Amino acid sequence: MSNSAISGRTSWPIALTLVALIIAVVVSIVFLRLESWPARTASQGTAQLEKLGRDLRTAFVEVAHLQPRITIKNRVYFEQTTETAELATVTRRTEVEHEFLHTWAGSTKRIKLHGVFVVKAGFDLDKDFVVDVRDDQIQVQLPAAQILAVEQVQTEVLAYENGFWNPISAADLETELNTLQQLARQKSADGGLTADAERTIKLQLEQRIQAKQPVNVHSVSPIPAGKSSG
After folding, report:
1. N or C end of the chain: smaller count of CB under 10 Å?
2. How many domains does the chain divide into?
3. CA-based nearest residue to 197, from 86, 102, 51, 75
């Protein structure tokens, strides 16, 4: 038998062995990749959520000068910090009038005032701002908006009439000025100023947050004193 025939018979088992080894290595690599795929996918997903959390923090700092408490998959990534105590998002000019009449022993005193005020509504930044980042949505929880300031711009005296023995006192005038301010506050609240404040910040945040998940922004009213959340 020739040497070439013997060599041919010898090379076939070696080639088959090499092919089998290559197939075994390929199968092992594929198996390991498939086995580690969930962990790698979860790691990539968490990294994306962490980046989104950082973007949310930046958006809040730009809009509200506030870093909210941000949680990602129930883990706190950022605690709440703030540079200011309050955030005013809307301002409205409001005019009110009030008349005071008082009669004593047939003598009547009368005060009638017209006031112009600038009323600001927004948020108390000492209360919780919480952002919960999830795979399927972003939950933003804000405290309910409130009237933050009522600033007097102008006061006009429409009537100032003393009674003969029932004169107007300094306390009467101070009370009426305070009443005007309270009326301006109430008129603004009844006119939806706090609702406008909530809509404004929600719109600003939704415009800033460019995320694949839907953004759900909602406000939480404080629990009245003496009542529990349960």
Report:
1. C
2. 1
3. 86
Q: Is residue 138 part of a domain?
A: yes
**Position 42 in a domain:** no
- Residue 16 counted as domain residue: no
User: What residues contact 62, with CB distance under 8 A and at least 6 apart?
Assistant: 208
Asked if 112 and 100 touch (Cβ cutoff 8 Å), the reply is yes
* Cβ atoms 83, 65 nearer than 8 A: yes
Cα dist from 34 to 27, 39, 229, whole Å: 10, 10, 47
Owning domain of residue 57: 52-220
**Is 183 a member of any domain?**
yes
The per-residue pLDDT for range 62-96, each reduced to its tens digit, is 777 777 888 887 777 777 777 666 788 899 999 99
